[in-house]
Write a structure and sequence with these properties.
Elements: E1 2-3, E2 8-11, E3 16-21, E4 29-31, E5 42-47, E6 56-61, E7 68-74, E8 77-84, E9 97-117, H1 120-123, E10 128-133, E11 136-140, E12 144-150, E13 157-159, E14 162-170, E15 174-183, H2 194-212, H3 222-234, E16 236-237, E17 242-243, E18 266-267, H4 268-281, H5 284-300, E19 312-313, E20 324-325, E21 339-340, H6 352-361, H7 369-385, H8 404-424, H9 430-447, E22 449-450, E23 455-456, H10 483-495, E24 497-498, E25 501-502, E26 520-521, H11 522-534, H12 538-549, E27 561-562, E28 568-569, H13 575-597
């Protein structure tokens, strides 16, 4: 993934951009061949290796940046295509976005091919082509123009309403192609020069290196934690501070199945947890921006659901996410239907108030009048509505239930609210909040616990286990070494864990209203590592964590799930996965440091056998 903090593109290891929406993450796609190779559209820029036996490709990020390099190694030469988008800084959204693609040869010589075949509006709208010279072309779509501008020796050739090029570079030579999306009829910048492109590349690299210097993480897994932090940053819409759940839509949780959702929106839950991960790494500016966005959503109210918060929004705060099926797209590996929009936006998921309160409680700005009033009003509402069924964290479409996790987050919401009221001496009905907090605790202990399973369960009417409850120790509901928690962890070990990978729940035991199955859920696998570490099972935790890292793709990115053969499933890259990786690494570092600092058995400060 490359991005500019307002939109993002995916690039294959063969040099094809097969996903890009512009001018925002949640805008209709320009390239979507990942969902349909024929109708989706793509932009390919790569060395032509068709006649060179033994040729290989490699893909990597420049260390600690979002600059992507595709390498092409062949008997005749070694070349690269470098892809990047310069982050758009400033307060407001912009309506033009640039993907810069730079080809260069470092040994020998290589032929290159370029093809730009956009398919606007998710492949539903035709486009036209106009050209001013042999290095510039404009592809006109509905409301959006895509300018293609190249440097020598690239010569753009019309192929119907698309453009292509073929050229050869020798050692030390470079060429660049810049894709710029603008509103219809507006000009792009002037023709690019190699000097300009080189300066822009240096600027992009410097941005990421400078941003990452704010990280306070110095632990054992710095490369993976840094990559996850950059990924969370790339998935955050800078003008509002709203993180999205993933860069894509429609990628299946089961190949050939129907669980193909649109994740390009801001879930209150996912965003709160993402921001918590960034806070833990020291990125306070991102946390402050999200808290401001969240406060604005609370103050706006009027979501149409009767609740003070909707479970998800568009990145600008728009609550309308009408779901539609794009039945003209074949879907990833034939996985249909492809959905745009998300009907789950109207669901009731009471846990979001706990995650929101936990995120708000991390900052000192909640002492401000507007911030405090927002959270107080939400908790006063929740005190009247907490004890009712909902759809739960996993957005099941099988009916509302009394989910244990939702009650757990009710406890978190009031626990954090009481702390804030006390810390900042703010007016609140703290006595009432404490009664609700305690009632939620008692209810979970009495009704969320199964004597038969010796474990906390998914909802009050079942004995089904649920991996969302792996968060119980982290939020402070139970001590990580409490016998009830250790028994729950053992039950999950037996039923939900497969070679350190963790399923969310068993849909055959707890029908969720959808056909088919899914892979193991990466968020839960990393939560499992964290729970093991905090419970003192360090050897098991470290082994599970190290194995989990092997399921990342070749540049350290994760989708939502892992399939039976280790394949990535679900939307990509997934914020849930990367925020949980950060939390697991930090918890494991903390517990390992503690273990390593303890004196060896028999060691002491006196003159006994332990003295050196």
């Amino acid at each position: 993934m490359v991005g500019d903090l307002q939109t993002a593109a995916l690039v294959t290891s063969e040099g094809t951009i097969d996903w890009w929406c512009t001018p925002r993450f949640d805008s209709p796609s320009v390239f979507a061949s990942i969902l349909d190779p024929e109708r989706g559209g793509h932009c390919r820029f790569a060395a032509d290796l068709t006649e060179q036996s033994g040729a290989t490709t490699r893909q990597l990020y420049l260390s600690d940046t979002a600059v992507l390099v595709n390498r092409f190694l062949a008997p005749s030469g070694v070349g690269e295509v470098v892809d990047f988008m310069t982050p758009v800084e400033g307060a407001g959204p912009v309506d033009r976005h640039r993907i810069v693609r730079v080809a260069r040869v470092v040994r020998g010589s290589l032929p290159f091919t370029f093809s730009c075949r956009p398919r606007f509006d998710y492949g539903r709208a035709p486009h036209t082509l106009s050209r001013s010279d042999d290095r510039s072309a404009v592809l006109h779509g509905p409301g959006t123009d895509l300018h293609v501008q190249a440097t020598a020796p690239v010569v753009l050739t019309a192929d119907g309403d698309d453009v292509t090029a073929r050229f050869t570079l020798g050692m030390g030579q470079m060429a660049a192609v810049v894709l710029t999306s603008v509103p219809s009829g507006e000009p792009a910048a002037g023709p690019p020069s190699l000097d300009d492109v080189t300066r822009e590349l240096k600027s992009c690299r410097a941005f990421w290196l400078s941003w990452l210097r704010s990280s306070t993480y110095r632990g054992r897994w710095r490369d993976m934690v840094n990559r996850s932090a950059i990924t969370l940053k790339l998935l955050t819409y800078a003008p509002t501070g709203a993180p999205i759940a993933a860069a894509t839509m429609g990628l299946p949780e089961q190949i050939g199945g129907e669980r193909n959702w649109d994740y390009r929106y801001t879930w209150v839950r996912d965003a709160s947890l993402s921001v918590r991960a960034l806070i833990d790494l020291g990125f306070e500016a991102e946390a402050h921006a999200f808290r401001r966005w969240l406060r604005d959503r609370i103050e706006a109210g009027g979501t149409g659901t009767g609740n003070p918060l909707q479970i998800m929004y568009r990145v600008d705060g728009d609550p309308h996410l009408t779901e539609q099926v794009l039945d003209h797209l074949a879907g990833y590996m034939g996985s249909a239907p492809v959905r745009a929009g998300n009907a789950a936006a109207d669901q009731v998921q009471l846990d979001i108030y706990g995650e929101a309160a936990d995120a708000l409680a991390q900052g000192h700005d909640m002492g401000a009048v507007r911030g405090w009033k927002a959270i107080r009003d939400v908790l006063d509402w929740l005190a009247d509505h907490w004890d009712r069924p909902d759809e739960g964290i996993w957005e099941t479409r099988g009916g509302q239930k009394d989910f244990t996790y939702s009650r757990l987050m009710t406890w978190v919401a009031f626990d954090r609210g009481i702390r804030l009221a006390t810390t900042f001496s703010r007016p609140a009905d703290v006595d009432r909040w404490a009664k609700v907090r305690d009632a939620a605790f008692e209810q979970i202990i009495e009704r969320g616990w199964s004597e038969e399973r010796q474990a906390f369960v998914q909802h009050y009417e079942s004995d089904v286990l649920d991996a969302s409850l792996l968060l119980m120790p982290r939020v402070g509901f139970l001590d990580p070494r409490d016998p009830a928690w250790l028994s729950t962890l053992d039950a999950m070990d037996r039923e939900l864990v497969s070679d350190s990978l963790v399923y969310r729940y068993d849909p055959t035991a707890s029908p969720d209203g959808l056909r088919g199955f899914e892979g193991t859920f990466n968020l839960c696998s990393f939560l499992y590592v964290e729970a093991l570490a905090r419970s003192g099972r360090l050897q098991q935790a470290r082994y599970a964590f190290d194995k989990m890292l092997t399921y990342a793709n070749h540049v350290g990115l994760f989708a939502e799930e892992i399939g039976p053969s280790g394949e990535q499933l679900g939307n990509f890259p997934q914020a849930f996965t990367h925020l949980a990786l950060i939390a697991a690494a930090m918890a494991l570092d903390e517990q390992l440091d503690r273990a390593e600092s303890r004196p060896e058995p028999g060691a002491g400060t006196g003159g006994g056998p332990g003295r050196a």
